[in-house]
Amino acid sequence: MLQGQGPLNWDAARQFALMIATDGASEQNIDPAVRFRYQELGRIADLHVQQVTGLETVTLGRAVEVTPVTRTTWAQHALDAYRPLFQHLAGTLGAASAASTPGLDEEESEPGLAMFGGLMQMLAPMMLGMSVGSMVGHLSRRSFGQYDLPIPRPASPEVHVVSATVDAFADAWSLPIDDLRLWVSLQEIASHAVLTIPHVRTELESLLMSYVAGFQPNPDALGDKLAALDPSDASGLADLQQVLGDPEVLLGAMQSPAQRALLPRLDALVATIIGYVDHTVDVAARGLVATAPRIAEAARRRRVEADQSDVFVERLLGLTLTQAAVERGHAFVAGVLERDGDLARLWQAADLLPTPAEVDAPGLWLARIDL
User: Does residue 328 contact residue 84 with C-beta atoms inside 8 Å?
Assistant: First the structure.
């Protein structure tokens, strides 16, 4: 497990992700009838999203296709998609760890400290891999599709939906399964249409990369946490997993000034994307999905409920998908429409994306883009 794989142990990440995704049980393959039904509903959803937004959904020369997958497949694709972010984070943490390693004179006077520092450097890639895998595994168990987190994915005409999660949600809320499948397809394709716009993708990826590069980790956090574990306790493995999944251990307790400076721009862009996508789904679902209002209320309530993975996502990537953030995006879209503004202008050029102040005052955005 400690063999060198760079600053992040991807074997540990993959093993933890799949273990949590499946809860240690084997998953059944997707029923061909379910796969075919999603393809049908996906074509309907694609047509309506294009009509509402005017955005292009063709990717790599092919029409977008909704593909149901298992939680295992979702986790594997998510690890691959988020890998550049995780590698950037690992490089940042590795550089900080190396900078905090005792110098030669200090090593000679404090051999115990030097040994502990060397051990922590050896363990760090595995621990980061386990933490990243834990986050992705938990996300795979609650995500409807690949865009539950508004993060761009590698270019592909396929949009993945976790059919088992959709089915379970339909049962829990007594929703017609075809209605929910179509609503989720609308949500995923609308997100796909926005997040594949080149300048939107570039801006969001740049902000996320800059955020993960801004960490100033606390080198004492891990030692303090490990010292509190009781090795004679039978529940020690579970406690260790909890420690390694705690973002405070790897990322420190405080955001850096550079990260705090980035957050307003990142929050504004994410709120705008969420508000626009939700509006698109609401319009496209009218007359198409009979239970759309019930589904929207249930799904959006679920989105802002706290989960074990949410803490790590928020601390790792700076994505705060709170009720306040969602309402902010909705208020911006509503403000533009009330002033007879054209939402399509949002995505025409990078300099037309709203600033943080403009998200809170849509009239300012409309005034600027009309100059």
Answer: no
- Length reported for the chain: 371
The answer for residues whose C-beta is within 8 angstroms of residue 32's C-beta and 6 or more apart is none
User: In the numeric block, which tokens belong to residue 13?
Assistant: 């990440």
What's the first-to-final CA gap in the chain, in angstroms? 59
Q: Do residues 136 and 17 touch, judged by C-beta distance below 8 A?
A: yes
Q: So what's the pLDDT on residue 113?
A: 46
CA atoms within 13 A on the CB side of 270: 26
What is the overall mean pLDDT for the chain? 84
Residues 6+ apart with CB under 8 A from 112: none
pLDDT in tens, 292-312: 999 999 998 887 776 656 667
Bridge partner list, 67: 160
3-state SS class at 233: coil
Helices 111-142 and 236-244, axial angle in degrees (round to 10): 80
Confidence of residue 177 (pLDDT cuts 50, 70, 90): very high
> Tokens representing 201?
């993708």
Contacts from 175-181 at CB under 8 Å and sequence distance 24+? 175/291, 175/294, 175/295, 175/298, 176/290, 176/291, 178/37, 178/41, 179/289, 179/290, 179/291, 179/292, 179/295, 180/291, 180/295, 181/37, 181/38, 181/41
pLDDT at 237 over 80: no
Q: Which amino acid is at 226?
A: L
Q: How many CB atoms lie within 10 A of CB 78?
A: 24
Please tell me the distance from the alpha carbon of residue 347 to that of residue 196, in angstroms, as a whole number.
11
The pTM of this model reads: 0.86
Query: For residue 123, which of 250, 239, 16 has the smallest C-alpha distance?
Result: 250
Segment 228-241 shows an average pLDDT of 62
